[in-house]
Amino acid sequence: MQQAAVDALTLGGSMPPPDLSIWALFLRADIIVKIVLLLLLSASFWSWSIIFEKVTRLRRLSHHTRTFEDAFWSGGSLEELYDRIDGKPQDPMAAMFSAAMREWRRSVSKGINMKEVRGSLQERVERVMQVTLGREMDRLERYLTFLASVGSVAPFVGLFGTVWGIMNSFQSIALSHNTTLAVVAPGIAEALFATALGLVAAIPAVVAYNKLSSDLTRYSGRLEAFAAEFSAILSRQLEERA
Fold first, then answer.
1. In a designed cystine with 44, which of 53, 104, 105, 201 is the match (CB 3.0 to 4.6 A)?
2. Degrees to nearest 5, angle at CA 93 with 92 and 99
3. Using one digit for the tens of pLDDT, what is the confidence trace for 62-88?
4. Cα-Cα-Cα-Cα dihedral of 214, 220, 226, 231, to 10°?
5. What is the C-alpha to C-alpha distance for residues 79 and 112, in angstroms, rounded to an integer?
6. What is the pTM of this model?
């Protein structure tokens, strides 16, 4: 398109108004700018996929966690609650509870003298809960790094496309010796399109990363508080058995 404008102006012909639609801008873009645009589109699509999956998963886990907490603090038997979960926890808190109860039962079934090993058993239970917590949080935080990377890198990738598009515009001006809008507008529009797409990819990624990180931090604190409370309950039971 830019070359056609240059030829028309050089030959003294007239040019129709340039098509500045998004699709036309993409088709007219240089191969480098097209690659930049495709990369940004892919990053934006993948970011939204991660955002949707994380939001949906956190809502589901929050519901399951509330259900488990209601059952845990209902005053019923912890043994019955463990049997009801049956090794298939639906949320990280239930997974921590199952891991701790499994270690507890393993020690009790061996007929160990609780008075002699009370400290080591409680330490093992706490370690098991911490390992489970770390594993579950790693799963929840997966792909958040990608959102952070898109949020920080996408504007610069878009800026690269902008610089490249402006360079092409300057080349068109140099060839035509003319600074009319028909020569300048397409290249400038391509350049600005790359910048805009970089921001479109980066802004949601940054907002989602901050929101998800905050939610996961609160959820992790909730799990750590449960681990401390459950450890205290087990400690009291060990004292009663000793």
1. 201
2. 85
3. 999 999 999 888 877 888 888 888 778
4. -150
5. 18
6. 0.78
Q: How far apart are CA 211 and CA 48, in angstroms?
A: 14
In this structure, the dihedral spanned by the alpha carbons of residues 71, 73, 74 and 80, taken in order and rounded to 10 degrees, is: 60
Q: Specify the residue for token string 């019955």.
A: 80
CB 5 within 8 A of CB 176: yes
| The token pair that represents 172 in the structure block | 């068109």
Residue 16 gets which letter from DSSP? P
Structure tokens at 232: 């205290």
Q: Name the residue ranges covered by the structural domains of the chain.
A: 2-8+21-241
DSSP label at residue 75: S
Q: What pLDDT digit, counting tens, does each position of 45-63 carry? A: 999 999 999 999 999 999 9
DSSP string, 21-65: -HHHHHHHS-HHHHHHHHHHHHHHHHHHHHHHHHHHHHHHHHHHH
Question: C-alpha angle 61/145/164, rounded to 5°?
Answer: 135
CB count in 10 Å sphere of residue 23: 8
pLDDT of residue 240: 65
- Measured CA to CA, the distance from residue 54 to residue 144 in angstroms comes to 9
| CA gap 47, 182 in Å, rounded | 36
**Count, residues in the chain:** 242
- Separation of alpha carbons 148 and 216, rounded Å: 15
What span, in angstroms and rounded, lies between the C-alpha atoms of 63 and 78?
20
Amino acid found at 237? Q
Neighbours of 47 (CB within 10 A): 24
CA distance 111 to 122: 16
Confirm if 54 and 211 have CB atoms less than 8 A apart. no
